[in-house]
Amino acid sequence: MRVFLKKIGFICVAVVVLSSVIAFFSLQSLKASSFYKPSFLANQVSEQQFDYIVLGASTGLTTLNTKLIDSIAHTNGINLAMDDTALSSQYLMLQHFLAQGKTTKYCILAPSNPSFDSKTMDVSDNDYRFLPFISTSYVSDYYKQFESKRARLLSLSQWFPMLGVTYYNTELFYPSLLGVLQPEKRNRFDDRGNYTYPVIKNSSKIIQSQSNLRVDFTNQYVEKIKRLCEANNIKLICYFSPVKGVTVISENNEYRCINHSNLLTNTMYFYDSIHVNYRGRQISSIKFAEEFSRITNEK
Predict the structure, then answer these.
(1) Which of 41, 156, 157, 275 has a C-alpha 20 to 30 A away from that of 197?
(2) What digits encode the pLDDT tens for the residues 29-69?
(3) Using H for helix, E for strand and C for coil, what is the string for the chain?
(4) pLDDT at 2 (0 to 100)
């Protein structure tokens, strides 16, 4: 029996060690690739200076096309927004951007419109994409501040990488294999960080009813992003993306805003209730470029 238990113990230790080694190299592969935005920014973006960056969730990712904006406004921008992320994630992305030694004149903050007042504090669904950079203090400190199960697993991955890689196996392990074979492959965004939803319906219908969403910027991470921008001589602009049938109202003068919440009033420009399609992105980006040009030309 004692021999049997020793063999079982040896096998268990071997499995843990092997899993840890695989997990470690999985994260290293992702860190060296361009599959997710944090690694893409570190490895594939050679420019150090930008006129603006876009931070945000899926709305910012799919509404603002930096290539089109730059062609109109004669600027140099990049879209660093990631789907399924909160303002805390966008604060982390700004820290990550600055940690790469990069600078920008403007930060366009474009989360989902209700996020500006969200009270929910936890890691976002896609915060695991920063896990390859867990050895940096800003990433490890970010995970540590939350108390959920997945936050603890991400935090402990600094010492036991198999925890995070096992929990997010589909999102981390398999892309890490792809990172070995195709290190420059990107996960649904182009070489400037943009992504768009297709036009899946040809129906055209005027959106009649409009409800109001009042935004007061009470999410603590809005202020944190603002302070970090000020510390690095960056001007912050909050962007309200187009939403089907919702008009954003803000009376807080502490934040400069571009409000496109009711810019599009036809269903033909929307992929779903909160995301624009390719047509909607074209109009939104052109209008943004015009307003952004006026802001940058102010004395």
Answers:
(1) 41
(2) 999 999 999 999 999 999 999 999 999 999 999 999 999 99
(3) CHHHHHHHHHHHHHHHHHHHHHHHHHHHHHHHCCCCHHHHHHHCCCCCEEEEEEEECHHHHHHCCHHHHHHHHCCCEEECCCCCCCHHHHHHHHHHHHHCCCEEEEEEEECCHHHHHCCCCCCCCCHHHHHHHCCCHHHHHHHHCCCCHHHHHHHHCCCCHHHHHHHCHHHHHHHHHHHHHCCCCCCCCCCCCCCCECCCCCCCCECCCCEEEEECCCCHHHHHHHHHHHHCCCEEEEEECCCCCEEEEECCCCCEEEECCCCCCEHHHECCCCCEEHHHHHHHHHHHHHHHHHHHCCC
(4) 66
Beta strands 246-250 and 211-215 are: parallel
Q: Which domain holds residue 159?
A: 2-296
The mean pLDDT of the chain is 93
The answer to whether 215 touches 249, Cβ cutoff 8 Å, is: yes
- Give the CA distances from residue 58 to residues 25, 30, 41, 55, 140, in Å, rounded to whole numbers and listed in that order: 29, 22, 17, 10, 24
Domains: count for the chain: 1
Query: Beta partners for 80?
Result: none
- The rounded distance, in Å, linking the Cα atoms of 237 and 297 is 15
How confident is residue 201, by pLDDT bands cut at 50, 70 and 90? confident
Under 8 Å between Cβ of 177 and 35: no
Element (H, E) at 172: helix 169-181
**C-alpha of 115 from chain center:** 13
The span from the CA of 109 to the CA of 240, in Å, is 9
With 90 as the cut, is the pLDDT of residue 22 above it?
Answer: no
Distance CA(240)–CA(26), nearest Å, equals: 37
CATH number for the domain spanning 41: value is 3.40.50
